[in-house]
Design a protein that fits this description.
Belongs to the TRAFAC class translation factor GTPase superfamily. Classic translation factor GTPase family. IF-2 subfamily. The chain is α/β, with parallel strands linked by helices. About 30% of the residues lie in helices and about 25% in strands. It has a 6-stranded mixed β-sheet, sandwiched between helices. Bound molecules: guanosine-5'-diphosphate (GDP).
Length: about 475
């Protein structure tokens, strides 16, 4: 809300206050006040009842009500063909069969299933691309990541990517070892290959729950849901219900008869028919709300997704929305944002080159082959110099540099400088474009020493800046 890069704020607390914060942390009132003081912003707390200028904004975390537990929001990730879509379909069909309404369903971008009275919401766009694109926009949608790994295939490149993305988002991972019905399925081998990625099963001394399932044959999906409920319980997910709603735009489409349809995931408060919501610069009077079963609802509570009509223009997926008391207030916020946007976007560009201190250098490396990764990493490990502890490998994987790597770079949480490096690989044209848009630099090398020297120079630059 204060339109400063989140990295700057994290860096401020870490470097000046020695207080490590992650991108999803809530700031206590005192810390909010401190941030405002730092940027010389005027602020008033909600409970002091003086919301001004239509920008009820960033102090809204100071709720009126008690936080109550809410269902987890889950994203399914994994390598192509490992069964993500099948898993989401089967879970959904089971839930439809179990519900009384039965039959009529519509795909709105997320759906909620129930096991023993416990609800779980699944984002039904599989894969980490959507997940990461949302995070790049500053929206944290997911509480838990389900990593689907086919038991006849084991860890594959996108499995590694998904692990890196889930870790960067600091969300708990649950592994679904899928296709156990297939000839050639080898769950033990799959566990083995996951352990090589540092994903160690809880019964192997690690802390990652793993369940063996068949998405296609509907085997042990209850087991998966149980573990999800357990993990959610441990994460103590909470939200205030009795408040104006706020959340994320998951999808938006245009329907020739109904106009703009947007799926909103409520993250706190309760969204009601007739509410005035703002997403980005778009105002919406919530006219009709439908749930994933296609039925009309009048209210949506935290962790539920509803498709709403009433937006004038389609909002962007990943935008946050919040509800305002009156049409005037909502319009004032949207207008103000529009004016600000025309002054140019604030984004990733300043990260790291800022005068503020940076802590580490984060690296995303793509190469032609697994062997090259080992060669590059080996080169750094050979140098016994303490400054190399400042390097962090966010992702090292074979393959071309794609959009998803750039998205990952632009979500890097801890105020770090990030480099996207290629070694003997290609850069997809869309990645190049996205990188430009987001101010992420891609550097591609064919000579390993050049890569090494470039990283060393960047690191030294960072460290000098710190002194
Ligand atoms: P995605 O690319 O990860 O979304 O994978 P899909 O869900 O499209 O699945 C890829 C293929 O694997 C499809 O032909 C599915 O029918 C098949 N498949 C998915 N889950 C299972 C399973 O549990 N057992 C078997 N035998 N096949 C599966």
């Amino acid at each position: 809300k204060i339109r400063k890069p989140v990295a700057q704020i994290i860096t401020y607390f870490f470097a000046e206050k020695g207080k490590p914060l992650a991108i999803n942390d809530f700031l206590e009132k005192e810390l909010v006040a401190e941030v405002c003081d730092k940027y010389e912003l005027e602020y008033l707390f909600d409970d002091e009842k003086t919301t001004t200028a239509g920008d009820r904004g960033f102090l809204a975390e100071e709720h009126k009500g008690e936080a109550e537990s809410r269902p987890p929001v889950v994203t399914v990730m994994g390598h192509v063909d490992h069964g993500k879509t099948t898993l989401l379909d089967t879970l959904r069909k089971r839930s439809v069969a179990a519900s009384e309404a039965g039959g009529i369903t519509q795909r709105i971008g997320a759906y909620t299933v129930e096991l023993d009275g416990q609800k779980i919401t699944f984002i039904d766009t599989p894969g980490h691309e959507a997940f990461t694109a949302m995070r790049a926009r500053g929206a944290q949608v997911t509480d838990i990541a389900v990593l689907v790994v086919a038991a006849d295939d084991g860890v594959m490149p996108q499995t590694r990517e998904a692990i890196a993305h889930a870790r960067a988002a600091e969300v708990p991972i649950i592994v679904a070892i899928n296709k156990i019905d297939k000839d050639g399925a080898d769950p033990q081998m799959t566990r083995q290959s996951l352990s090589e990625e540092g994903v160690l099963a809880d019964d192997w001394g690690g802390d990652i729950p793993m369940v063996e399932v068949s998405a296609k044959q509907n085997i042990n999906l209850d087991g998966l849901l149980e573990i999800l409920n357990l993990t959610a319980e441990m994460s103590e997910l909470k939200a205030v219900r009795e408040d104006d709603a706020a959340g994320i735009v998951l999808e938006s489409t245009f329907d020739t008869t109904k106009g703009c349809l947007a799926t909103l995931l409520v993250q706190r408060g309760t969204l009601k028919k007739g509410d005035w919501a703002v997403a980005g610069c778009n105002v919406c009077r919530v006219r009709l709300m439908q749930n994933d079963a296609g039925g009309e609802v009048l209210e949506a509570s935290p962790s539920t997704a509803v498709q709403v009509t009433g937006f004038q223009d389609a909002p962007t997926a990943g935008d946050q929305f919040e509800v305002y008391k009156t049409a005037q207030e909502a319009r004032a916020v949207a207008d103000k944002r529009e004016r600000e946007m025309s002054r140019g976007p604030v984004g990733f560009a300043g990260l790291g080159s800022d005068s503020e201190q940076t802590m580490k250098l984060a690296l995303i490396l793509k190469t032609d082959a697994q062997g090259s990764i080992a060669a590059v990493k080996h080169m750094f490990s050979e140098v016994k110099d303490s400054k190399y502890v400042n390097l962090r490998w966010v992702l090292a994987a074979p393959g071309p540099i794609t959009d998803s790597d750039i998205e990952l770079a632009s979500t890097c949480p801890q105020g770090q400088k990030v480099m996207v490096l290629g070694f003997n690989t290609n850069v997809s044209p869309t990645a190049e474009r996205t990188a430009k848009e987001r101010g992420v630099m891609i550097q591609n090398f064919n000579v390993i020493y050049e890569l090494f020297d470039t990283v060393v120079a960047a690191l030294e630059g960072e460290l000098t800046q710190e002194e």
